[in-house]
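Complex 380.
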Amino acid sequence: MSRHPFDWIDARAEQRARAGLVRTLRPRPAESPLLDLASNDYLGLARHPEVTRAGADACLRWGAGSTGSRLVTGSTELHAELEAELAGFCGFEAALVLASGYAANLAAVTALTGFGTLIVSDSGNHASLIDGCRLSRAVTEVVPHTDPEAVRKALDGHDGPAVVITDSVFSVDGDAAPLTELATACRRYGAALLVDDAHGLGVLGDGGRGAASAAGLAGAPDVVCTATLSKSLGSQGGVVLGPARVIEHLVNSARTFIFDTGLAPAAAGAAMGALRLLRREPERAARGRAVARELYERLTTAGLDSVAPDACVVSVRAPSAEAAVRWAADCRAAGLAVGCFRPPSVPDGISRLRLTARADLTDQQIADAARVIVTTAPRG
Ligand SMILES: Cc1ncc(COP(=O)(O)O)c(C=O)c1O
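Predicted structure with pyridoxal-5'-phosphate bound:
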């Protein structure tokens, strides 16, 4: 009897179930009774009336879709306006908006590397950067997490172009990359520095201008940043920021830019609305960071194992994948939505609850959230 071509999928599903790693979708209602510490809406802008209005207005004016790839009909004046605003806000010469942060990372990594390039990549980098390295045809050396000395060693002796790639804030533990030291190492060896600021834009730097701005690297001729519009800005989409010649090179060579439909006008409009708001209310960035620190203090004082947050991500370690799933479910039952990170989403194999601080949480909500997490924590 011939075997079915998808039988292997059942075998994989059984393996996953045995390891406690099954993932399921849980569609949320429009109005959820849960207190949200699971989303990436760090500044609480996804539902801010000014941001949703800007998105709706853009949709009505420009249409539901962008109608084509950016090089054909998918570039509207709104896209150009958003790119100028992002470049100006973050302090870079130019910007290019793509359909997602994932696409922005694939674009930046693949367009800036190729045969003969050495990529030096932090072991904690996001999956989209890792996939960019895989697609690049460059040699990738993965170095230990946040270790500038390891980066120096990797660059030493390499003859030819090199790019050092790092998240600014790592999505799993919420710790920051040593950008100043990395930039120094890059300059010593003539390497470019590519920083994914997905978790830094809107949170780090003066008024949320991002990690490169905070480190004094924004606008540097050898630094390129990527970011998503889907976290602090409460919208959707991605951006590459850098010198004008890099952005022009991407327009002409980045496959996830050229062969992808332009960002939907509603998303571009909402991101513009969020940037306008952030310029007017720069204190939102500092409030997000303060909420994260308050949450961290409360959890560690109660004996939980967490890493000091550098932005809005607060991670708490769990003894096992099963324990993390149960913990997240218990939080949920108590009215609190939290993220649950398990292999393969964690580079070190340690499962965690992943909490996101939001600038719009009240002190009472922070206290309630911490109480629920502590009282439902696995014992022993
Ligand atoms: C560090 C990092 N980079 C890139 C992305 C991808 O961004 P997007 O969701 O806009 O594709 C994410 C998460 O979504 C992320 O956490």
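The chain is about 40% helix and 15% strand.
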